[in-house]
């Protein structure tokens, strides 16, 4: 390779303009914590030769399946697969889903080489069915490889990783779509202002979030994407979520209060990412990404599995040729104005609540389970109507016309497991809120204050052991309920007060505990009180002592079962 280490596939002038070659030439670090720190700091980002060496080393150390195609395989098969075709006219494999190959700083020869490598990968990995991120990965690796064969081998090792705890690249539509749902859930929890904007301006918010990988693997300029990839190789898939969340935060900061450039927010974000250098440097982008205190990797894995199971229950495992069946029910569609009836909330208010719920349940429509005006003011009847449904939504209207409520992750029948004793259950997906006189949502305190805990050591279950998901009826298979997402037992909490999500007895219903209750309702559904509690770190949801005008409980119904 010619000095400063560019190969024959790179446009030297573009590369010099994009990434100056000024950095160190050697890396002596061997310990993961130090390597992690150096990757975040960009230690090898300014040295083309050193980045190539580091990529070679990091990818070589990826644990792979026993038979993984290497450079010699590429040399054997490339001629047979490409034949006499011009490399620039080669078709792309179907699994890239018509994704354009980002050129970055590649010359014409490099662009053709990427197509050849992708076709050879398709030949060696027939099980890959959907992988739109791969063209960008191959294009980037080609900048830092001696030849096509070495680039092919690197890409193959990334694809052949067999460490279940080290997810790298989605290779099926099911994995891709569940990642998009997981990203949507993370946006909902960590970028609430941006999420509110997305819901307001897009007809299908998941379609916007389904573009998140394209922001990274396609729209980001080379010097940004390479910095992300540096850390990704050391730390894994979670880094991608972090950076995409940071991009959305910057987009919201820049565009908040401004009219969108088009009526297509999806396209606006793509343009923003492509021109991100006008807004933030690679260093500031990563700084913002790592300032977001995300769930643990294992907890995100549980959420991903929960979303995968929801899609499987819907029969969504491959991309449809016409229209994706996995589109999130846009809140205007999930909450039909013509047939939605509530004594407590308007259609608009229910849509606001629907935009807060986990993505896997936003595939459903609201189903009225209990209404005090229809079923009477009885807590016993409330339980009877709600049991067998998970999750549920509790709505309360006071005689002062205040409106508040809670999203409750767990079937109320769980209360029967404690022998008549009032005990708390539920998971960290529970949240409480008020709608009138002003809108405010309070989530589990650990989400915004992870310093209160550190994840406990636990083994993530197999996909079959994920919690019961899409159907509004609870599964009878106990294996389905082994390890729900954000179960309190996954965390080393300082006390039980941070995990008092929901409790129900014959005489009262309680949401949130520790230092007070977020909601307390008596057995006659007549009186209640609200105050600060440790579980949600909330302010009172309405007048601290209130009289109840109406109570409703809503379930989540799969539209296909109606």
From TrEMBL:
Keyword vocabulary terms for this entry: Cell membrane, Cell projection, Cytoplasm, Cytoplasmic vesicle, GTPase activation, Membrane, Phosphoprotein, Synapse
GO cellular component, one term: plasma membrane
Membrane topology term: Peripheral membrane protein
Domain named TLDc: residues: 343-557
Cell compartments where the protein resides: Cell membrane; Cytoplasmic vesicle membrane; Presynapse
Gene Ontology biological process: axon development; cellular response to oxidative stress; dendrite development; negative regulation of cellular response to oxidative stress; synaptic vesicle endocytosis
SMART domains recorded: TBC (SM00164), TLDc (SM00584)
InterPro entries found in the cross-reference section: Rab-GAP-TBC_dom, Rab-GAP_TBC_sf, TLDc_dom
Keyword Flavoprotein: no
Record GO terms (molecular function): GTPase activator activity
Assembly behavior: Interacts with ARF6.
UniProt function note: May act as a GTPase-activating protein for Rab family protein(s). Involved in neuronal projections development, probably through a negative modulation of ARF6 function. Involved in the regulation of synaptic vesicle trafficking.
Record protein name field: TBC1 domain family member 24
Organism, as annotated: Peromyscus maniculatus bairdii
């Amino acid at each position: 390779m010619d000095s400063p280490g560019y190969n024959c596939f790179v446009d030297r002038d573009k590369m010099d303009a994009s990434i100056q070659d000024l950095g160190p030439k050697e890396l002596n670090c061997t310990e993961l914590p130090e390597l992690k720190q150096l990757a975040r700091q960009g230690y090898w980002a300014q040295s083309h030769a050193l980045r190539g060496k580091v990529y070679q080393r990091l990818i070589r150390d990826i644990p792979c399946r026993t038979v993984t195609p290497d450079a010699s395989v590429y040399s054997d098969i490339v001629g047979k697969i490409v034949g006499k075709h011009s490399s620039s006219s080669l078709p792309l494999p179907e699994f890239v889903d018509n994704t354009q190959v980002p050129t970055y700083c590649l010359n014409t020869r490099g662009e053709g080489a990427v197509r050849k490598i992708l076709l050879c990968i398709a030949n060696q990995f027939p099980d890959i069915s959907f992988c739109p991120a791969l063209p960008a990965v191959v294009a980037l690796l080609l900048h830092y490889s001696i030849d096509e064969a070495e680039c092919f081998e690197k890409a193959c090792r990334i694809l052949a990783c067999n460490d279940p705890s080290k997810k790298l690249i989605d290779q099926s539509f099911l994995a891709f779509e569940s990642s998009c749902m997981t990203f949507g859930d993370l946006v909902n929890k960590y970028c609430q202002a941006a999420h509110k904007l997305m819901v307001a301006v897009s007809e299908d918010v998941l379609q916007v979030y389904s573009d998140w990988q394209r922001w990274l693997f396609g729209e980001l300029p080379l010097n940004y994407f390479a910095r992300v990839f540096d850390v990704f190789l050391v730390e894994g898939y979670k880094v991608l979520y972090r950076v995409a969340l940071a991009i959305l935060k910057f987009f919201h900061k820049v565009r908040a209060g401004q009219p969108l450039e088009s009526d297509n927010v999806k396209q606006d974000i793509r343009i923003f990412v492509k021109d991100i250098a006008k807004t933030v440097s690679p260093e500031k982008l990563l700084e913002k990404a790592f300032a977001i205190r995300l769930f643990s990797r294992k907890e995100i894995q549980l959420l991903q599995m929960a979303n995968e199971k929801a899609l499987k229950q819907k029969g969504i495992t491959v991309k449809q040729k016409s229209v994706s069946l996995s589109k999130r029910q846009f809140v205007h569609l999930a909450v039909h104005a013509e047939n939605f009836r509530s004594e407590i909330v308007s259609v608009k208010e229910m849509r606001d609540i629907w935009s807060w719920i986990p993505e896997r349940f936003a595939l459903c429509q609201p189903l009225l389970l209990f209404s005090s005006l229809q079923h009477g003011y009885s807590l016993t009847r409330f339980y009877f109507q709600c049991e067998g449904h998970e999750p549920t939504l509790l709505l309360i209207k006071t005689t002062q016309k205040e409106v508040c409520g809670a999203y409750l992750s767990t079937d109320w029948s769980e209360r029967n497991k404690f022998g008549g004793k009032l005990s708390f259950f539920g998971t960290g997906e529970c949240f409480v809120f008020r709608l009138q006189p002003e809108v405010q949502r309070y989530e589990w305190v650990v989400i915004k204050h992870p310093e209160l805990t550190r994840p406990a050591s636990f083994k993530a279950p197999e996909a079959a052991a994920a919690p019961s998901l899409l159907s509004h009826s609870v599964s009878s298979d106990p294996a389905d309920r082994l390890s729900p997402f954000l179960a309190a037992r996954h965390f080393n909490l300082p006390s039980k007060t941070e995990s008092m999500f929901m409790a129900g007895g014959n005489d009262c219903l309680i949401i949130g505990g520790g230092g007070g209750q977020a909601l307390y309702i008596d057995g006659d559904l007549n009186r209640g009180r609200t105050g600060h509690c440790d579980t949600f770190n909330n302010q009172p949801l309405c007048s601290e002592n209130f009289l109840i005008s109406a109570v409703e409980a809503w379930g989540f119904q799969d539209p296909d079962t109606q």
